[in-house]
Amino acid sequence: MTEKRDFKRVLLKISGEALMGDGQYGIDVGTVDRIATEISQARQSGVEICLVIGGGNIFRGLSGAAGGMDRSSADYMGMLATVMNALAMQNALERQDIQTRVLSAIPMTTVCEPYIRRRAIRHMEKGRVVIFAAGTGNPFFTTDTAAALRAAEMNCDALMKGTNVDGVYSADPRIDSTATRFDTLSYLDVLSKDLKVMDASAVSLSRENNIPIVVFSIQSNGAFLKVLEDNGNCTIISET
After folding, report:
1. Short-list 66, 96, 62, 91, CA closest to 79
2. Is 232 annotated as a binding residue?
3. Is 15 part of any known ligand binding site?
4. CATH number of the domain encompassing residue 188
5. How far apart are alpha carbons 40 and 225 in whole angstroms?
C-alpha cells in the first residue's frame, strides 16, 4: 500500500489494557507517558492525529453484564472509564507541549468538551490532538466501533490499531510459535476467518467507508512513526 506515506490524518485506537503497563488494573503513568511520546513524534512529523482509547483497564461493560449487571448500565460505566483514560493521555501529551482536546460523546462540560464533529475537525486543523471519549455515547457498541465511526466522520486516511503485537497473526504468537503474520488482509478475510482484530461492526464500517485498518505494536518504541513512514512492521486491512 504505497500511499501510506501520504497519510495526512489518522485515528489511533488504543486499548485500555495498553495503559496498564505491567500492572493488572488501572493506569500506569510511565506507560501513558511512553505512548504519549509515540504520539508526539508522529504529530511533529506533520500528521493530524485523533485518538480513541478503550476502558478495559478500569471497567469492561461486557464483563459487568456477564456478572449480572444490566448491560446498558455496565456499558455506560465502561464509557466513563474511557473518559478517565482520555484525561490521563491528555495530561501526558500536554506535558510534552502537544495541545490536546478531549471530546466526549456523553456531555460532561466540567472536564471536557462535548463531541461536535465540526469542532473536532477544526481542532485538528489547528494542530491539536483530539481524543474522543465515551465511545459512541450509546450502549451495545464497543470502542472499536466508535473508532471506526470517528475515523469516518473525521475523514481519516487510516484507522491505526495499536496492539501488543506487530500485526495480525494466524494465531496468538505469544502462545503459538508457528503463528505467521499477515502483511495484508482484506476486510472479508478478517470477517470470514473471524480474526479477532476488531469487532465485526468496526471492520464493516471501515469497509463501507474505504478506510484501511493498520495493525501494529504500540509497545515498540517508535513503531507508530515508523508505520506512518512505511518503515515498520504492520498488517494492512483494506479492500484488496
Report:
1. 62
2. no
3. yes
4. 3.40.1160.10
5. 9
What backbone torsions phi and psi does residue 24 show, to the nearest 5 degrees?
-105, -5
Q: Cell 478500569 belongs to which residue?
A: 58
At 49 the three-state DSSP class reads: strand
Output the pTM of the full model. Answer: 0.94
Q: Any idea how long the chain is?
A: 240
User: What is the residue-level pLDDT of the chain in tens, covering all 240 positions?
Assistant: 344 457 999 999 999 999 998 989 999 999 999 999 999 999 999 999 999 999 999 998 778 877 889 999 999 999 999 999 999 999 999 999 999 999 999 999 999 999 999 999 999 999 999 999 999 999 999 999 999 999 999 999 999 999 989 999 988 888 888 889 999 999 999 999 888 899 999 999 999 999 999 999 999 999 999 999 988 899 999 997
Task: Tell me if 110 is assigned to a ligand binding site.
Answer: no
Residue of 149, 131, 132, 124 whose CA lies nearest to 211: 149
For cell 464533529, the residue is 117
Question: Which residues constitute the domain of residue 27?
Answer: 2-238
Domain tally, the chain:
1
Task: Establish whether 59 is an annotated binding residue.
Answer: no
Q: Where are the alpha helices (DSSP H) in the chain?
A: 29-44, 61-66, 71-94, 117-125, 143-153, 187-192, 200-208, 223-228
Residue 34 marked in a binding site: no
Phi then psi for residue 153, to 5 deg, are: -65, -35
136 among annotated binding-site residues: yes
State yes or no: 132 annotated in a binding site. no
